[in-house]
Amino acid sequence: MQIAVLSGKGGAGKTLLAVNLANLIEGSTFLDCDVEEPNGIYYFSEYFIKEKVYSKIPVVDEKKCVNCNMCIDFCRYNALIDFIGKVKVLPSLCHSCGGCQLVCPHEAIKEKDELIGWINQTIINDHQIFGGELKIGKETGVSIIEKILQKTSDEEDSVIDCPPGNGCSVMESISGADFCLLVSEPTIFGLENLKMVYDLIKIYNKKSGIVINKAIKNNELIEAYALENNIPILGYIPFEKELALLNSKLNIVSEGKYRPYFDHILEKIRKEVLK
Ligand code: SF4
Ligand code: SF4
User: Fold this and answer.
1) Using a 6 Å cutoff on CB, does residue 186 contact ligand 1?
2) 128 with 251, same domain?
3) Residue 115: CB within 6 Å of ligand 2?
């Protein structure tokens, strides 16, 4: 079973849920795909083996290029431009799809490897831990996420800490997930972010459920939206100073007195996946 943990924004409690659920699932793999803020792995360890991740970036051979602009017209990411009669590559916009090389009728495009980040990895007890890290200055970590997801298989249990929002990197992160866990705070801002993420996972037709983090007495905003859209609420994590302090010091709170909250959510996810 692969569980993807999502939220519309950072700070909603996505990593708290992902780390603590992974901790409870025996032998599970933790995949931190939040490559711009890879903090989930540090709950498990400070020491990692680092693997470099490269991306393919096109290089134009000016001697062969006849300026037909077919590659420029093809690139949907606008990563190729005509600059005073010469084709220039904008690496920060390139998604390494390889298409420009294929469409060039004069074999004027080759590819080079460019370092875009790393995968940090370790094994703690019976858990394999992988975390992507985007190199500063690089625009997209999708290639890193693709490589992290290859570290696990459909037969293994895994928990993914997804990037926040609803962009390409989130879409890639949930692509193989059996269940999407949506983490939300019970505020208007939380609700708006929840709607944004739920709209995305509806497109992928994924099973999903909501956890309300920083839950207060009145969580009506989120509960009403869940009811209206027929999304199950799988649990509540209380808004408590002690829990916030433990979490801020990178403690895995599903070991202690907060364990029942996470056990309950995990049990509900398992039931939803089997439905
Ligand atoms: S590899 Fe793909 S994204 Fe990159 S420049 Fe070529 S067509 Fe555009
Ligand atoms: S498709 Fe090939 S020949 Fe045409 S502009 Fe691009 S690189 Fe040059």
Assistant:
1) no
2) yes
3) no
